[in-house]
Amino acid sequence: MKIVYKWKYLDYVWDNPEHKEDAINSGNYNVSTCFLNDVDKADDGRIFATVPKMFNFAVPASVVTVSDIIEPGGPLLHPYPDWSWYNNSNMCDNIVNVYTIHIKCNHIFVLDNGYGSDNESCDPKLLIFNLENNTLVKIINIPPDVATNETGSGFLITPFVYLPEKCECNRLLDKMIVFISDMIGSGLVVYDSSKNSSCRVESDFMGATDYINITVANQTVPFTAGIYGLTTIRGDLFYNPLTEKKVYKMKIKKLLKCPDKETANNQTKLVGELPIQTGPLASTKCSLFSTNSLQNSIQGTNACKKFYPKDMVVFAQNDKKLQVVTGMKTLQHHNELMATSTMMYITYPNGINLNKTNFFVVKFNLTEIQKKIYFNTCIKSEEHSACTKSDLHDVIL
User: Fold this and answer.
1) pLDDT beyond 60 at 383
2) Domains of the chain
C-alpha cells in the first residue's frame, strides 16, 4: 500500500484571500465539516475527488482535482471544472452535491443528486465532461419518478458506467449504459444511451434488512441503507446494500428491459457473503474488492465463483489509514486500485480534529493483489476441484 495523499483538513485554491473570507462569512465553507468521500484518476494522471455536502451545506465545491500546492492541511483542492460551476445565481445551474464520480474513456461522470439546503434542492442530474478539454458534453436529467420510489424516497449516490463489449471509446456517448444506485429509496436507475431513456428497477434484495450503528451528535443510532457499491463482471451488474453482508448480481441485458419488481426478484442471484458490511465495490476480471471496517482492511476474492466470508483475501490492513473506506476504483490504465479513507472518530456536529490526519488516498499495484487473490482462493484452496486452468486468466490481467 502506498499513500498518495493525506490531509488534516480540506482547503481550496481560492481566487484570492477575499474569496475565501467571503465563503467562510456566508456559511459556504466550514473547514471542520468538509469530508473527502470518493476518488478517481484520469488517464493524464489527474486525481479527482468529491467533497459532498454530508452533514451541512458549508462545502464550496463538491468535485475537485488535487493540486500540487501543499499547505499545512494538505494539498489544496481545485474546483472542477472551475469556480463558475459553484456560484451561479440559479442554484440548479450549479454542481450542487456530489458523493461519487466515475471516469470512463477519458470522460468524467458527475452524479449531482441535487440536495442543497432544505428549501433549495434540485432535481438530480448526471453531468459528463470530456477530460481532454474539460468541456461539458452531455447532461442527463433524471426525472423525479425515476430518481425516487413510490413513496417519494430516494438518494442517488453512485454512478457506474458500462460500455458493452466490442464498443470502442469513440462510441461512448452513443452506446454507454449508466447504472445509478439509490441508497435510501432502495432501487436502481438504468440509463440506456442508445435509446436516450432511463427507468427505475427495484427488487426486495436492493433494500436493507440489517443495520449498522452510526454516531450523530454523540448519540449512537441504528442506520439502514440500500445500494451503495456498484461494479460489473462478465456482463453482470454486482451491487451491495450498504448495511447488508451480501453481494447480488443481475444480468445487464435483463436490466435493460426494465423488469418489474417480481421479475427483478426472480432474476437476482446471490454472488456471495461478506464477513461484514462493505461500502464501495470495485472489480477487474473476476477479482472483486470490498472493505472490512472491523479489521480496517481492504479485501478481495474471486467473484466468478460463489464466495463466503472465509474466501476473503485481506491484502491491506492498517488501523490508522484504512478506518472508513468510502471510495474505491480499479484503474486499468494505471494498473492500480485506488481508495479514499476517513478517520472513524469524525462525528457531527463537531466535525474533524484539525490537528490530526483525517483523510487518505492510497493505492495498490493491481496485478500484485490479483495474484494474491488467485493464490489464496485457488492454489491454497482445499477445494482443488473448483480450480480450473482458466482461473489464472480469470483473476489476473
Assistant:
1) no
2) 2-394 (2.120.10.30)
